[in-house]
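mind reviewing these tokens:
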Amino acid sequence: MVQNIDVIRRVCKKFGRTGEIIDVQEIKIGNINKTYLVIFSDTEKYILQQVNTYVFKHPDEIMANISAVTAHLKNKYAVAGKSHYRRVMDFITTDKGEYGIQLEDSSFWRLCIYVDRSVSYNTVSDLSLLRKSGAAFGEFEALLADFDADSLYETIPGFHNTAKRYENFLKSVENDAAWRRASVQEEIDFVIERAELAKKLTTLHEEGVLPNRVTHNDTKYNNILIDIDTNEPLCVVDLDTVMPGLVAYDFGDAIRFAANTTIEDDPDTSKVSLDLACFEAFADGYLSRLKGFLTNDEIIHMTTGALTMTYELVIRFLTDYLDGDKYFKIKSPTHNLERTRNQIALLKDMERKEAQMIAITERYLSK
């Protein structure tokens, strides 16, 4: 049992779950929220999360987005004559119809049904499964193609505004709040040398070349649940950052995570490279599901998205390290620095392989 079991019991009761809790397991995957698997004596299982309100200042807006988007997805499956069971996250409401509750200590909690006999992976070597996972993210966005993106809250303002993140990075370098600047000058120089990359996608968006769509904005491979029995993708999870965005960001974030030859915080940068076979498998699944929904300009800039998102993560990890590790969960004092160096190595390899990446995605241009 975890230490705060009394709080967990109390929160579950507010969501109408008053039975006996027989087990609580903390799930340590994820960098932001605290997540628990709660098992009741009647064998019902739920995922209980304490939302990180330092990161998400308005958790009620997150839940408004999630409830609207999941309702839309459920309706899409119903119209198609399919069950949404295990395909869409099911959040529980309180007796007041609320999707989240705030306690006296200002902590914010939510509860959803656990998707049984499912698993998520941090890495994958099976290209077939990677292609299917690309298709799962592609289907997620295709089903939301007719949803009004502008009706959603921006849960983290400027989340993928890389130009703004670059400006904030420069402020962190100047402030040197944790007295770490001198030890990471090489990494700082790397970011500054690529400042033009920070503005590329935001400029295209401002010029109207790339349109706003409903995007996931955290398309790491481990945000797809896989059926243990069939090895088929089931459900896209972690919907906190579903909001208006660019598909290039979603594609790019997925690539920097899934096509990296090692995990994103591996301190051994000699293991880091872009696996072009993984890139192609994911691109095939993702773009095939979005055929007819995307413009040629969006497809052309998918590779830009991969480079930009990797660069953005370099900025985010290094900024957090300079600020004293306030945003991401860390396992050691140098964890964010290890993440930074890992993503730098990946971006360097992407730059070497950029022409090959572009050639792969351009096969999906409409004729």
Notes: Strands lie at 21-27, 34-40, 45-51, 101-102, 108-113, 118-119, 213-215, 224-227, 233-236, 243-245. The two ends are 58 Å apart (CA to CA). The mean pLDDT is 93.
